[in-house]
Amino acid sequence: MKPGGHRASGIQFLRNGNGNAVADGAVQVYFVAGSVPDTDLCADQQGDPIMPTRLNPYLAFRENARDAMTFYASVFGGELTLSTFRDFHASEDPAELDKIMHGELKTQNGLTIMGADTPKEMEYKPGTNYSVSLSGEDEAELRGYWDKLAQGGTVTLPLEQAPWGDYFGMCADKFGVVWMVNIAGTESDPG
Questions:
Q1: Cβ contact 118:61 at 8 Å
Q2: How is 21-75 classified by DSSP, letter by letter?
Q3: Which of 159, 121, 157 is CA-nearest to residue 143?
Q4: Which of 37-41, 125-129, 177-181 tops mean pLDDT?
Q5: In the chain, count of helices (H) and strands (E)?
Q6: Full set of structural domains in the chain with CATH
Q7: pLDDT in tens, 135-152
Q8: Which residue among 30, 46, 126, 147 has the highest number of C-beta atoms inside a 10 angstrom radius?
């Protein structure tokens, strides 16, 4: 590894052979994409690229997620990705097929906002229409968070393989905060 010349909070950043930033020393450090100049990926201690665990808001809407997420893209800029219930064969209700099952706005400066339309059979109350999303590739880390958040709370959707191939679950912690955990699939995952 070669010194990259970048310091943040007293940590010396090094570049591995792939040009990814890693921290000097035995402490494993995860960086937010873009937080180190010229770095889009994080790397583990072996220098292999990984997706860092992210924490961001997940907003719920009733039939206007497309408009809301498009509005947020006009406010913050960035890249907006929208997937419908039809895309994932996730609804049998023809009225919901073109509604947004998952929207994600990623900005140049590291902001992420996620959102979706709430299906008709689920409760929707403006003012309480948000969740906190934890997502990434580190299965042990994310399952650890899931276990702790679900303990004493209510699991509304078990952490299991989802139609898009990742592992996904929802729970309300013992304080009533709703959490969504998504563990990105790996090449060895079935399907």
A1: yes
A2: EEESSSS-----TTSSTT-SSEE-TT--EEPPPEEEEEEEESS-HHHHHHHHHHH
A3: 159
A4: 177-181
A5: 2, 13
A6: 10-50 (no CATH), 54-183 (3.10.180.10)
A7: 999 999 999 999 999 999
A8: 30
- Both tokens assigned to 84: 């419908």
Q: What whole-number distance in Å separates Cα of residue 89 and Cα of residue 174?
A: 32
| CA proximity to 169, closest of 138, 140, 135 | 135
Report the SS3 class of residue 129: coil
- pLDDT tens digits for range 33-86: 333 333 345 666 777 777 789 999 999 999 999 999 999 999 889 999 999 999
Structure tokens at 78: 């960035």
